[in-house]
Amino acid sequence: MNRRIQKCRIGFWGGFLMAAALGGCGAVEQGRTFVLPPLEKQMTDPEIFRIDQIQQYIGSGYAENVICLAWGDPGTDLLYLLKKDHGGYVYQVVDTGEDTVLNSIFVDDRPLENASISPGGEYLSYEVQDGEGMKLIVLCPRQGARQILHGWERPEETFSYIWSDDGTLLFSWQNGDTGDAYEEWQVTRYEMETDPEAGFRCKVVRFQMKGHGRARRSVCPNADGSEIYVREQLGTSYNWLLLPDTVTVEALPEYSETAVWPVRYTQAGLFVQEESGDLYLIGDIRSKPVKTKLLSGNEGAYDPFLCVCVNGDHVFLMEWVNYSMYQISGLCIADGEADGQPVVLYKDNYESLNRINIVGDQAVVFWGEEFLENNGYRYKVTVLRYHG
Amino acid sequence: MYRKKRRFFHSILFRISLWILLPGIAGMFLVAYFVEIQMRYYIEKQIMEDMQRARDNSLLYVRQTLLLNDGRMDAVGFELYRDEIEKQLSGAGYREVLLCDPKGMLLAGDIKAFEVRKTQEDFARAKEQESAFSVRYGNSGQCEVFFSMPVKLNGQFIGMISCFFDYGELYGGQSETIERMIWITVAVFILICLVIWFTVYRIVLPIRKLSRAAGEISAHLADGGQGGMILDQLQLQGRRDEIGELCSNYMEMLQVIEEQFQRIREDKDRILELWSSRQKFYNNVTHELKTPLTTISGYAQLMEKNGLGDEELFYTGTGHILKESTRLHRMVVQLLELQDKADTEEARQLNLSELVESVTETMNIKANRYDNTLVLKGAKEYFPVVGKEDKLRQVLINVIDNAIKYGEPGNPIHIRITGQAGQILVTVSNQGQGIRKDELETIFEPFYRADKGLSREMGSAGLGLSIAAKIMEEHQGRITASSIPGKETVFTICFPAAGRKEKAQGGAKGTDI
Question: What kind of architecture, by CATH, is found in domain B348-496?
Answer without folding.
Answer: 2-Layer Sandwich (3.30)
